[in-house]
């Protein structure tokens, strides 16, 4: 089982090379990550955007433009649509946001004619390499769905399981995170957690093991779980942390990012192809990790 992002990158290199389509590619930080991914043998790339500006940045970062297909489209919204169309038509396998606002980019991703809709809920999966735990964990959904209901959480779990499978985690352990470990009718998240666990028991959610509700300490620490007398396959050894809402997820995501010594990467899934939606605050390493993850998920979806 993969435990580090170094292994994620190596696994992505070992599979058939995928093509990433970059929407409004004239972003220096994005192009640096794409260049690095290309040079490491992770992906091929199609760059859609203002060709003149792309070439200026390429010269600045010592990027050989002849190694990339560049499609000149100066209108940002049209460039985003073209980048998405490249993927939906099968010429690319994943799409990445460049120098365009998130709302406009997502409108292109969800375009009814040429977008990447599947009928499933789209959700964000954050992946973290945590040295203290000597493993990789997945956190979902910390960035996209604000207050998911039970039906939404079913898709969120399934989306995260796809990412876990792409990384070689064959039967990921899913912990629906709550404030307590017992079902409390006054705490809706615990009811959802119990229902998800029962659905998993009955084979309605496959490819993983779900057990909850679990508080974070009992999902992440075997000692804490043992101290409270909590057993089962998931307690203390969860791979996927299903958070109850965007506030709790955002806090967990940013705490791991800024206060813990761990590496990370993230992407949107639930679409016909993975979507790399990084922010300008993300490090170069995080962007590269996200591209590697997207390549693995693209491979999983094309099996």
UniProtKB/TrEMBL annotation:
Keywords: Acyltransferase, Transferase. Pfam families: PTA_PTB. Residues 75-295 form the Phosphate acetyl/butaryl transferase domain. Belongs to the phosphate acetyltransferase and butyryltransferase family. This is Phosphate butyryltransferase. The lineage of its organism: Bacteria, Bacillati, Bacillota, Clostridia, Eubacteriales.
């Amino acid at each position: 089982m993969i435990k580090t992002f170094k292994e994620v990158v190596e696994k992505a290199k070992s599979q058939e090379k995928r093509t990433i389509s970059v929407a409004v590619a004239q972003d220096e930080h994005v192009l640096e990550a794409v260049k690095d991914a290309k040079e490491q043998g992770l992906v091929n790339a199609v760059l859609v955007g203002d060709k003149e500006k792309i070439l200026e940045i390429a010269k600045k970062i010592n990027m050989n433009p002849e190694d990339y297909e560049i499609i000149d489209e100066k209108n940002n919204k049209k460039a985003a649509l073209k980048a998405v169309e490249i993927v939906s038509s099968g010429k690319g396998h994943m799409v990445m946001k460049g120098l365009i606002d998130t709302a406009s980019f997502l409108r292109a991703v969800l375009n009814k004619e040429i977008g990447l809709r599947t009928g499933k809920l789209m959700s964000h999966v954050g992946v973290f390499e945590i040295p203290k735990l000597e493993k990789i964990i997945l956190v979902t959904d910390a960035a996209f769905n604000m207050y998911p209901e039970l039906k939404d959480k079913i898709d969120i779990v399934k989306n995260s399981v796809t990412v876990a499978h792409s990384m070689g985690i064959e039967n990921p352990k899913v912990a629906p995170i709550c404030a307590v470990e017992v079902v409390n009718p006054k705490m809706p998240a615990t009811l959802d957690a119990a229902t998800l666990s029962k659905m998993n028991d009955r084979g309605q959610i496959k490819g993983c093991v779900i057990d909850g509700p679990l508080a974070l300490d009992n999902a992440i620490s075997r000692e804490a779980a043992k101290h409270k007398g909590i057993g089962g396959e998931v307690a203390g050894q969860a791979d996927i942390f299903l958070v109850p809402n965007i506030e709790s997820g955002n806090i967990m995501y940013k705490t791991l990012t800024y206060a813990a010594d761990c590496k990370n990467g993230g992407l949107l899934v639930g679409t016909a192809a993975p979507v790399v939606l990084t922010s300008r605050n993300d490090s170069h390493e995080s962007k590269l990790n996200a591209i590697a993850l997207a390549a693995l998920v693209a491979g999983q979806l094309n099996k």
